[in-house]
Amino acid sequence: MKLVKSLLLGSAAGFAMVAGAQAADLPVKKAVEYVKVCSVHGAGFFYIPGSDTCIKIGGMVRAEVLARNYDDFEDARDQVGWRTRVNIDVDARTATAYGTVRAFIRAELNSNSGSPYGAPLFDTQGTGFIRRGFVQFAGLTAGRAVSFFDFSEGTNWGTLRFSDGVVVDLLAYTATFGNGMSATIGIEDPANRRNAPLGGYLGGTRIPDVVANFRIDQAWGSVQLSGALHEINVDNENLISDGWILPGQDADSEYGYAIGLGAKLNLNMLAPGDYLWLNATYADGALGYIGFDMNGGLGLAEDAALVQYLATGNAGIETNKGWQVSAGFQHYWTPNFRSSIFGSYAMVDGIDDSLGVSILPEFTEYRIGLQNVWMPTKGLDIGLELLYWNQEATRKNGVGIADTSADFDA
After folding, report:
1. What Å distances lie between residue 138 and 42, 96, 149, 289, CA to CA?
2. Beta bridge partners of 61
3. Sequence-ordered list of residues with C-beta below 8 angstroms from that of 15, at least 6 positions apart, any chain
4. What is d(CA 179, CA 216) in angstroms, rounded to the nearest whole number?
5. Is the distance from CB of 229 to CB of 259 less than 8 angstroms?
6. By percentage, how much of the chain surpasses pLDDT 70?
7. How far is residue 108's CA from residue 85's CA, in Å, rounded to a whole number?
8. How does DSSP classify residue 166?
């Protein structure tokens, strides 16, 4: 009996040892890493599980209340407007043997109410569109992005009279030279730089705008020199004036241009985050590049063509000239409170109306604003901005004041 028990115990011990050895030989399954930080492209990126693509998801929610004092106020116009804006950003990047491939999307949703935001009377106007969507690879940028002509450093929420952050469809190539220097050349959709004037005698696009810049970005700040070539095309066969169609000729075209200079100077010696920015633009036949989107980049030039036609019977295009200067300064009083002051001045040459034809006059405009922002926590801005502007228009030959207006926004 004792022998049997010893054999059983020995068998059990032997089995336990074998089983233990088999368990030790089994591979240990690693914990699944669902999110892995991707620090190669900066903060906020992480790897998409199962791929080499890094992605960053972000966005913005902005709520505004705009109070506007119109000099020509009518009871039918709202003096207070409301806006809610939502941006959703997706930035995906993949490293390849030929460089990083980047795809960026910004979807924007807006809800606007009231005359100050251009909403219909007694109604709320909602919009949704792709604000930006582009692909970058090996220096190429293709898609919808901020124009490479613009130097966007303004801190203002309201509109200053300069071309700031205009989003267009484009195809461009950027070459980098080291030490923060780069140069870009490309073609851009001119639709955002023009607008059909009254009468609708806008000709079709024949060539896109050609845009180029040279830029330096360093620790002290940045500077950019920009240039643009813009086609002006008038459909002389369908010129319309005061409701009647003029007998026309073939379509005519001319070329305008714009030159811009922008600079940003970091002033961290005053306080971290302080800076001064400057912007200046001159345009001849391409007024959209100095921010005159009301009549577009060629509305005024087309009016000149109409005057020439009425006077001589020969349609042609006389380009108009304009310029603007703008500047701003941002200062952090504390790490959680900042102030900005900014302004702009612009002037556009009028069209000689000695022929007695009613035409857009010469005008000047200035704007000045002040902004205060409190940041109780990172990513949250609560602020108030005041913006005042004044426009004065006169006839080219000094006939008198054609229009004077002054508005005040808060």
Report:
1. 19, 10, 20, 28
2. 86
3. none
4. 8
5. no
6. 62
7. 7
8. -
Structure tokens at 34: 């669902």
275-284/240-241 β-pairing: unpaired
Task: Determine how many CB atoms are found less than 10 A away from the CB of residue 246.
Answer: 18
Three-state SS at 19: helix
Site of tokens 């024949």: 206
In this predicted structure, the answer to whether residue 248 has a pLDDT above a threshold of 60 is no
Q: Between 292 and 186, whose confidence is greater?
A: 186
For the cut 50, the answer to whether the pLDDT of residue 104 exceeds it is: yes
The pair of structure tokens assigned to 338 is: 């900042």
Residue 118 CA neighbour count, 13 Å, CB half = 3
Reduce the DSSP state of residue 379 to 3 states and report it: coil
pTM (predicted TM-score): 0.77
Report residue 307: phi and psi, to 5°: -60, -45
Q: How many CB atoms lie within 10 A of CB 325?
A: 18
| DSSP bridge partners of 388 | 368, 408
The structure tokens listed for 378 are 């990172």
Neighbours of 88 (CB within 10 A): 15
Q: For a pLDDT cut of 90, what percent of the chain falls above it?
A: 31
Q: What are phi and psi of 399, to 5 degrees?
A: -65, -30
pLDDT category of residue 244 using cuts at 50, 70 and 90: very low
Q: Which long-range contacts (CB under 8 A, 24 or more apart) does 371-377 make?
A: 371/155, 371/156, 371/157, 371/339, 371/340, 371/341, 371/342, 372/337, 372/338, 372/339, 373/337, 373/338, 373/339, 373/340, 374/336, 374/337, 375/336, 375/337, 375/338, 376/336
Q: Strands, DSSP E only, in 240-378?
A: 240-241, 244-245, 252-266, 275-284, 321-334, 337-348, 362-377
